[in-house]
Design brief:
mainly alpha; 3-stranded mixed sheet; 13 helices; 57% helix
Length: 343
């Protein structure tokens, strides 16, 4: 979920919005203000004897990561200089939706950032309520908790308790991912923005581990990425099979639903054959899988190979890579896909 640069700028838009939209932005402003109110500079948290050693250890690591991001990754690092304990497992809950027989995601429009493929809420019950409302419209819906989000460099995002449980590699990837959003962001192109942040963050973790001469850590990180990519390939392949299913003309809705179900059943069988490291059985098995949930994967990973190729073409030169990515803001969606070599 993205928040506008200055929430006062939302007021003119609110005056012409529906009651539901006013309610959405009201909770968004309230949630952001809660984060500001509960944030303290990292230095004060580190000096506080009442703060757990585990939290301090994570904050010291994040300070190291911020310094590396600035010096070696060419990323803006005004975020993560403060710490906020929200005393809950997620900062926001995000709603994804799609038609029952289409892989095209529902989009929501936001000031400053354009159309995005998700709707975020600071309270889980609000997200669940929105999800239920969309289900009643006949849409496939997925609601999930999110540990971190970016205000795109408009605000100084704090470190949140919601992501301190991660391993060193995972925490580094998260920090670099969120800082990348402040480097380059194209309004309205969710897939482009998230895939760029994903590819750039993974490359950043590799560089960080090499800088520490942590070759064992690098091997473990690469092995983890390979396992993750195996799962992603399965899910994206499933999404493509569904696209083919939805292109057919069926005698009845029930027949099309059965064809859709068989695709997901096949996905779970393939996952079982690949072994327990292919983690697609969570959240109540088959009943939890639908078009919307698959889109959460597609958003982050479909375009990643294109960005990886682009970085390789620049021989790992981050300044040239970031410059070309930022220049794509001037291109149309189709032109950006052509540059990335992704159909």
């Amino acid at each position: 979920m993205m928040i506008a640069r200055n929430w006062f700028a939302l007021l003119p838009a609110l005056l012409v919005c529906s009651c539901g939209t006013v309610s959405f932005y009201t909770q968004a402003v309230g949630g952001q203000m809660e984060i500001w109110r509960k944030s303290r500079p990292n230095a004060k948290v580190l000096a506080d004897a009442s703060v757990a050693d585990r939290v301090k250890q994570r904050l010291r690591l994040i300070e190291e990561l911020r310094a590396f991001a600035a010096s070696d990754l060419r990323l803006p690092t005004k975020s993560f200089g403060k710490y906020c304990d929200l005393k809950r497992p997620y900062v926001v809950w995000v709603v994804f939706a799609a038609p029952e027989f289409s892989i095209e995601a529902k989009r929501w429009w936001y000031p400053f950032v354009g159309n995005l493929k998700y709707r975020g809420f600071f309270a889980e019950q609000d997200a669940r309520k929105e999800g239920q409302r969309l289900r009643q419209q006949g849409l496939d819906v997925f609601v999930g908790g999110v540990e971190a989000y970016s205000t795109l460099g408009y605000f100084k995002d704090p470190v949140l308790n919601t992501f301190l449980h991660r391993s060193d590699h995972e925490l580094a990837e998260l920090i670099f991912h969120e800082l990348t959003h402040a480097k380059a962001f194209i309004p309205g192109d969710t897939d482009f923005n998230e895939a760029f942040a994903t590819a750039n963050a993974e490359d950043g973790v590799r560089r960080w581990l090499r800088s520490k001469n942590d070759l064992a850590g690098l091997r473990a990180y690469e092995a983890g990425l390979q396992r993750s990519r195996k799962t992603v390939r399965l899910l994206l392949d499933t999404r493509e099979k569904l696209k083919q299913v939805y292109s057919y003309t069926y005698r009845s809705i029930e027949t099309e639903r059965l064809a859709k179900q068989r695709v997901f059943e096949n996905m779970l069988r393939r996952a079982g054959a690949q072994g327990p490291q292919t983690k697609v059985r969570s959240q109540n098995g088959l009943s939890s899988w639908n078009n919307a949930r698959l889109n959460t994967i597609a958003t982050y990973y479909t375009l990643v190979p294109g960005f990886e190729r682009l970085l390789k073409q620049h021989h790992g030169n981050l300044e040239a890579f970031h410059h070309e990515v930022a220049s794509m803001r001037k291109l149309s969606d189709e032109e950006r896909l052509n540059v990335l070599g992704t159909p």
